[in-house]
Amino acid sequence: MSNVRLRNLCISLGGNEVIKDLGLDVEEGEFLVLLGPSGCGKSTLLHSIAGLIDASAGSVEIGGRDMTDAEPSERGIGMVFQSYALYPTMTVEKNMSFGLRINGTPKAEIERRIQRAAGMLQLGPLLGRKPAQLSGGQRQRVAIGRALVREAGVFLFDEPLSNLDAKLRTELRRELKLLHRKLGSTMIYVTHDQVEAMTLATRIVVMRAGKVQQVGTPAEVYERPANLFVAGFLGAPAMNFMHGALGADGSFTAGTLKLALAPAAGGARAAVFGIRPEHVRIGQGAPLSGTVSLVEPMGNHQVVWIESGGQLLSALVHDTRSFTPGAAVSFGLDAARGSLFDPVGEQRV
């Protein structure tokens, strides 16, 4: 296992600065997920750690050694790409062992590593097959196995599940989590899928426009988002936002909707109140009223959209109650689970 240290890292591509003065510590044995929208720089950052893209400034340290200018083969990393990139004329065994054979690894050692990786990834019965005889999930497992046989200190994953259907993504997500538990290796994983990030990560790095917005455990970034971007990016449905005014007495007003919050430090000011749909509770006798705008059945739950006082809020309902668009409903907000943001700086307050 190895740790990774990034210090004041800057990366420019085509004259555009993609990564800007970024610092990040990845601890040994951690499963760190780089999460963000397309174009935020997460894959570029991963490729720089791998040595596939040169940094214009700053440093990359792996396992206590400065690897900023080292070749990819010298960095002790194993990488899995979005594309399987398997050789179609080679068997699974040959695809997995190709890099070892090129490097002159002894045959007995190659066999040991292949059998170990095949056992972990349930590829034993498939070693004699060629990629055309495999499903998409099996091909991606081969690509992961090809990285594992290197027995690297750090494994890098660049959106490895994005080409798979929903069922296969769920299965391989579980296998990756179990694999990390077995190996205890340092893993850095890039995705734009928040479900992958929340289920796989020991810590999540949320990125936007080449900068880190927040680093924390899945629970931390979900329950206490550092800013409006993080709050809105994580969660499905997304967090409800109400733009209004916070009074010195702790009252928050948005249109005709009024909430009682904690007294405001620093006096009255404009604010944005955010609350997750699961903390909007529909029920008789609740203090707020509104009208059902839309109902989205989701199988084991339903999303009910409520219009109230000029605000449109989503609520998660985990029972079989029936809601009709246009019907009046009573609801309440678990204000203690909400978040307040500064509408100008967009930071949590």
TrEMBL record:
UniProt keyword Magnesium present: no
InterPro entries xrefs: AAA+_ATPase, ABC_transporter-like_ATP-bd, ABC_transporter-like_CS, ABC_transpr_MalK-like, ABC_transpr_MalK/UgpC-like, Mo/tungstate-bd_C_term_dom, NA-bd_OB-fold, P-loop_NTPase
Domain of life: Bacteria
Keyword Magnesium attributed: no
Pfam families tied to this protein: ABC_tran (PF00005), TOBE_2 (PF08402)
BP term (GO), one: carbohydrate transport
GO cellular component: ATP-binding cassette (ABC) transporter complex, substrate-binding subunit-containing
Protein name per the record: ABC transporter ATP-binding protein
Keyword set, alphabetical order: ATP-binding, Cell membrane, Membrane, Nucleotide-binding, Transport
Molecular function via GO: ABC-type transporter activity; ATP binding; ATP hydrolysis activity
Domain (ABC transporter) ranges: 4-234
SUPFAM superfamilies cross-referenced by the UniProt entry: MOP-like (SSF50331), P-loop containing nucleoside triphosphate hydrolases (SSF52540)
